[in-house]
Amino acid sequence: MLFCNFSPDRPNLTLDDLLAKTGNKRIIIFGASDTARRLLTECPFENVAYLCDNDREKQGRTLNGIEIKNPINILLEEPTDDLVIIITAHAYGAIIRQILAMRNCEIYIPGYLISLKKSSLGAWDEWPEYFRTNTRLISEVFGILSDEKSKYIFGRVIEKHLQRDFDFKDIYEGSAYFINDIFSKVNPVRDNEIIVDAGAEAGGTLNSFIRFYKDRLKKIYCFEPSREFFARLSETASKHGDYDISLNQYGLSDRNDAETFYYYNNDDNHEHWSSHLKGAMNVHIKNADDLVEYNVQVKKLDDVISEGEAVTYIKMDIEGSEYRALEGARNIIAGNKPFLAISIYHRPEHYLEIPLWIKSINPEYNLIIRHHNASTPDTVLYAY
Q1: For the residues 260-284, what does the mean pLDDT come to?
Q2: Domain extents for the chain?
Q3: Of 372, 379, 362, nearest to 322 (Cα)?
Q4: Could you give the CA distance from residue 17 to residue 238 in angstroms, rounded to a whole number?
Q5: Given this chain, do its domains 2-110 and 124-383 carry the same CATH topology?
Q6: Least C-beta-crowded within 10 Å: which of 33, 196, 326, 359?
Q7: Distance (Å, rounded) from C-alpha 148 to C-alpha 154?
Q8: What are the residues facing 204 on neighbouring strands?
Q9: Could you give the dihedral angle defined by the CA atoms of residues 143, 147, 148 and 150, in that order, rounded to the nearest 10 degrees?
Q10: How far apart are CA 347 and CA 122, in angstroms?
């Protein structure tokens, strides 16, 4: 396990090195997260004074028996050279600035903070190397993006991955899928809209599509393989009896088959699924050994949609399976040219391969990139 000093010119430290370096120093952990819980469980620090977190809901509670305080307490600490702060929150770039605005001290970041277990799932730490070795493809993507804003956002997202700094406040904008500056160009609201919602989860985007399209919505296909989410999706759909909603408890891919999916529960007791966990960025697990394998039926979208149905909008947020699912929708995309909203942040190659693939399937597509979360990767490619 490595601990990264936030200054790039200083070497990483092993746990033993950090324990020796901190000695009897006073330790504050910033970020009452799963990473903090793992740190406190696996690392024998003896001098943790308290945790702090910007979330007011967490302040006053405890984690592993240690109190969670308001970060202002860092400012109130007695002046000393014996203070060490370990950041266990993803938005550590902003937190470093927050800390240094209050006091100078030693700051460290666990090396696994932005990674999964390398032994079984790959790591976010591997992403910078991918981008460094694929500069030609990065240049090609810059060349096919349709507006300067997209080029700026794309460049900033790559830079942040290279720096492992997931503070996206300078480029993020609200909710995904209904972006005014895009829709004003394409005038998307037509009669007889047929929508594909891949990764429908509990029905949040189903509600959004119905609110947006209203009586212009002809049919919506929802795909969600998660058992828990599908049950909640079914409940959501039951509230919209006036609409033609097709609920499908299977995944989308480039073939009709069964694939290995992995199930686990997070702290919110919600299921998450991925057929390609390696490098999938939003899969935050405590232990790879806790994953349980399931066989999940997957299908090609081309084989699901009837020939007479002209799909007008495809949304995909499916935990790293987007590229395969797009391949399985090749005929629909080439023939109908539906509006596309595709999450490209689950795997590093998706930032590059998916835009290039879409442009190769239908060169008439305009490609736009937007980012929709201030503190985590949540980049969506829009094509129209």
Answers
A1: 50
A2: 2-110, 124-383
A3: 379
A4: 57
A5: yes
A6: 359
A7: 10
A8: none
A9: -80
A10: 11
Cβ–Cβ < 8 Å for 2, 13: yes
| Six token digits for residue 8 | 């790039």
Residue 176 CA to residue 312 CA, distance in Å, equals 17
The pLDDT value recorded for residue 33 is 84
**Angle formed at CA 208 by CA 340 and CA 350, multiple of 5 degrees:** 30
CATH superfamily of this structure's domain 124-383: Vaccinia Virus protein VP39 (3.40.50.150)
Closest to 320 measured CA to CA, from 362, 261, 247: 261
Nearest Cα neighbor of 252 from 183, 332, 189, 190 is 332
- Cα 230 to Cα 127, 198, 225, 233, 277: the distances in Å are 32, 12, 7, 5, 20
Spatial separation of the C-alpha atoms in residues 116 and 284, rounded to whole Å? 7
Q: Is the pLDDT score of 366 beyond 80?
A: yes
> DSSP assignment, residue 65?
T
Which of 7-11, 97-101, 244-248, 316-320 has the lowest average pLDDT?
A: 7-11
Backbone dihedral region of 96: left (phi > 0), alpha (psi from -120 to 50 degrees) or beta? alpha
Residue 316 phi, psi dihedral angles, 5° rounding: -130, 125
- Classify domain 2-110 at the CATH class level: alpha beta
DSSP 259-277: EEEEEEE-TT--EE--S--
Query: 134-165 burial, b if ≥16 CB within 10 A, otherwise e?
Result: beebbeebeebbbeeebeebbbebbebbeebb
Q: What is the chain's Cα-based Rg?
A: 23
- Is residue 379 within 8 A of residue 365, CB to CB? The reply is no
> According to DSSP H, which parts of 146-238 are helical?
148-163, 180-186, 204-213, 227-237
pTM exceeds 0.85: no
Whole-angstrom CA distances from 57 to 6, 60, 87, 324 are 27, 8, 19, 40
- Helices vs strands, H then E, count in the chain: 14, 19
When the pLDDT of each residue in the chain is averaged and rounded to a whole number, the result is 82
Q: Minimal CA–CA distance to 88: which of 43, 126, 119, 128? A: 43
